[in-house]
From TrEMBL:
InterPro entries: Adhesion/Biosynth-related, EMI_domain, FAS1_dom_sf, FAS1_domain, TGFBI/POSTN
Domain FAS1: 103-236, 240-371, 375-498, 502-632
Compartments, as annotated in UniProt: Secreted, Extracellular space, Extracellular matrix
Entry annotated with the keyword Secreted: yes
Subunit-structure text: Binds to type I, II, and IV collagens.
Transmembrane helix among keywords: no
Protein function: Plays a role in cell adhesion. May play a role in cell-collagen interactions.
Name of the featured protein: Transforming growth factor-beta-induced protein ig-h3
SUPFAM superfamilies: FAS1 domain
Signal sequence annotation: 1-23
Domain of life from the UniProt record: Eukaryota
Main location: secreted
One Pfam family from the record: Fasciclin
Organism name: Physeter macrocephalus
Length: 683
């Protein structure tokens, strides 16, 4: 089945030809999607396009590859239908759509493409039909019959009651006095209409959707003798205001208007460009606690970050959203813009109450919820939204809450909630001091941390940074989630409670009665100075029980041979600091003795040379101690290692014998070689 799964896409690609696997140079996104629809439909005959239709609606889409397999538009199921590609028609008795549509003038072409209501209204004006039937070159963005029918009754009445002014002007606004095909419709361009030279905003998206004042092209490039017709899904109206002017005249933007003025962003919103403003209504601002809102409105930097988080870098019409998209804001954050049926969503929430208000410099969507970026939040707000609420409660109980809501620059190392699944520690002086050591005296970003960096805490401790292949740790605690950088502080979510180092490795061992025999052995071997001086050591420390488990004769022999004792103890000391969070599947750590230790981690259990570690990450100023329940033997002392040496010797013997046989081209038997091997194995 796996092989079949790999072969099917290849077979499909071969069947569809090179066009299925390679983008055609020079083709617009719309043309590429149309090409894909044509390829999917060609089994039904020439010039047949596969079209996705939303179940229960008349909305149809030419399909791209992703949509073809997902069979969904805005999360709603679709069915595939097959119809003639634009510009072609069926012939009775023949397969597919072999005939090109006959070329006629623009007026007649409106009827051919199904825009009969546009054709009817053209008839009602005195001047427009002769123009459409006469000489010239024009482009008509013709509203579909459904588009006219969906107009509010009062709007439609005002048009048809004054056909030679209102209706004529509306129709002329849908026209351009030259032929414009889809390959010329570029994203962000403006076309000059035939009504008072008013602009029409064009957007051509990577998914192949083309919009005209946010109305979607349904079928494009229907040629006529005197121009081209594009069928669109809305009746469009003139654009006369920029984004800032719309904010000024909309009553529901009173708070937004004041915020924009205070931030100085009005210059941007009234200037050139193509933006999307996710405009918070008064209701959106009212949902925010008054204290938080007043703080942001009174802080120019936070306010600017807040507003920039509502401005997308390009114009995005609702009709262009057929699936989830990650779009960047002027603040630099990413918003997930998607759709669910007819509703647009922001970060999965249907908070857009009014969409596609088109401006001369972009488009506005009204939203009923404020999108506050991390950069405008205080530390406690970041923490409340993260998986560290238990730690935040501890900070508050310890009287440290002011650090989370103040203006000092710091980084909070907050253990995630799962760390406290067995309960929270009582708050006493020692615990308060430990919590102070979870606050770094600077606002950091993890991407700038480096191995060996020293960080100073509010509790006065100095913490080290360790960078491993797949983890970034501060002492024994590793970062478990992406940073959240707030207005003054940064939140690091940590995988455990941090333990600041307390003395050297020797101090740690001497202070723990479990290691009294190890301390005596280190002193006997003359290694005390080594483990007391500055350095970076990982010590796998055998407990007293580990030494007592040795055969009495072996233990006495070991303790009586200072050189051999030093050799074995050095094998327990790695030459770099390796905390448990940095281990991964397997790490080969070089020991001071010279051989390597194999350190692995699986299901939160650490092993060294396949022996379990009973306690990890006892931090020291010059290293880390891991407690183990056995004494590790260097490779040269292990029976299996001597077997490995024997195997190597046997291999070398065979190599020499084979080389001799080839060199002499003799039929020397290799029996003597086997005999020598057997003799070696006996010994």
């Amino acid at each position: 089945m796996a092989l079949l799964g790999r072969l099917l896409p290849l077979a499909l690609a071969l069947a569809l030809g090179p066009a299925a696997t390679q983008a055609s140079p020079g083709k617009s996104p719309y043309q590429l999607v149309l090409q894909h629809s044509r390829l999917r439909g060609r089994q039904h005959g020439p010039n047949v396009c596969a079209v996705q239709k939303l179940i229960g609606t008349n909305k149809k889409y030419f399909t791209n590859c992703k949509q073809w397999y997902q069979r969904k538009i805005c999360g709603k199921s679709t069915v595939i239908s097959y119809e003639c590609c634009p510009g072609y028609e069926k012939v009775p008795g023949e397969k597919g759509c072999p005939a090109a549509l006959p070329l006629s003038n623009l007026y007649e072409t409106l009827g051919v493409v199904g825009a009969t209501t546009s054709q009817l209204y053209t008839d009602r004006t005195e001047k427009l039909r002769p123009e459409m039937e006469g000489p010239g070159s024009f482009t008509i963005f013709a509203p579909s019959n459904e588009a006219w029918a969906s107009l509010p009754a009062e709007v439609l009445d005002s048009l048809v009651s004054n056909v030679n002014i209102e209706l004529l002007n509306a129709l002329r606004y849908h026209m351009v006095d030259r032929r414009v095909l889809t390959d010329e419709l570029k994203h962000g361009m403006a076309l000059t209409s035939m009504y008072q030279n008013s602009n029409i905003q064009i957007h051509h998206y990577p998914n192949g959707i083309v919009t005209v004042n946010c109305a979607r092209l349904l079928k494009a490039d229907h040629h006529a003798t005197n121009g081209v017709v594009h069928l669109i899904d809305k009746v469009i109206s003139t654009i006369s205001h920029n984004i800032q002017q719309i904010i000024e005249i909309e009553d529901t933007f009173e708070t937004l208007r004041a915020a924009v003025a205070a931030s100085g962003l009005n210059t941007l919103l009234e200037g050139d460009g193509q933006y999307t403003l996710l405009a918070p209504t008064n209701e959106a601002f009212e949902k925010i606690p008054a204290e938080t809102l007043n703080r942001i409105l009174g802080d120019p930097e936070a306010l600017r970050d807040l507003l920039n988080n509502h401005i997308l870098k390009s114009a995005m019409c609702a009709e262009a959203i057929v699936a989830g998209l990650s779009l960047e804001t002027l603040e630099g954050t990413t918003l997930e813009v998607g759709c669910s049926g007819d509703m647009l969503t922001i970060n999965g929430k249907p908070i857009i109450s009014n969409k596609d208000v088109v401006a001369t410099n972009g488009v506005i969507h009204f939203i009923d919820e404020l999108l506050i970026p991390d950069s405008a939040k205080m530390l406690f707000e970041l923490a409340e939204e993260s998986d560290v609420s238990t730690a935040v409660d501890l900070f508050r109980q310890a009287g440290l809450g002011t650090h989370l809501s103040g203006t000092e620059r710091l980084t909070l190392l907050a253990p995630m909630n799962s760390v406290f699944k067995d309960g929270t520690p009582p708050i006493d002086a020692r615990m308060k001091n430990l919590l102070l050591n979870h606050m770094i005296k600077d606002q950091l970003a993890s991407k700038y941390l480096y191995h060996g960096q020293i960080l100073e805490t509010l509790g006065g401790k100095k913490l080290r940074v360790f960078v491993y292949r797949n983890s970034l740790c501060i002492e024994n605690s590793c970062i478990a989630a992406h940073d959240k950088r707030g207005r003054y502080g940064t939140l690091f979510t940590m995988d455990r409670v941090l333990t600041p180092p307390a003395g050297t490795v020797m101090d740690v061992l001497k202070g723990d009665s479990r290691f009294s025999m190890l301390v005596a052995a280190i002193q006997s071997a003359g290694l005390t100075e080594t483990l007391n001086r500055e350095g970076v050591y990982t010590v796998f420390a055998p407990t007293n029980e580990a030494f007592q488990a040795l055969p009495p004769g072996e233990l006495n022999k070991l303790l009586g041979n200072a050189k051999e004792l030093a050799n074995i103890l050095k094998y327990h000391v790695g030459d770099e600091i390796l905390v448990s969070g940095g281990i991964g599947a397997l790490v080969r750590l070089k020991s001071l003795q010279g051989d390597k230790l194999e350190v692995s981690s699986k299901n939160n259990v650490v092993n060294v040379n396949k022996e379990p570690v009973t306690e990890v990450d006892i931090m020291a100023t010059n290293g880390v101690v891991h407690a183990i329940s056995s004494v590790l033997q260097p490779p040269a002392n292990r029976p299996q290692e001597r077997g490995d040496e024997l195997a190597d010797s046997a291999l070398e013997i065979f190599k020499q014998a084979s080389a001799f046989s080839r060199a002499t081209q003799s039929s020397v038997k290799l029996a003597p070689v086997y005999q020598r091997l057997l003799e070696r194995m006996k010994h």
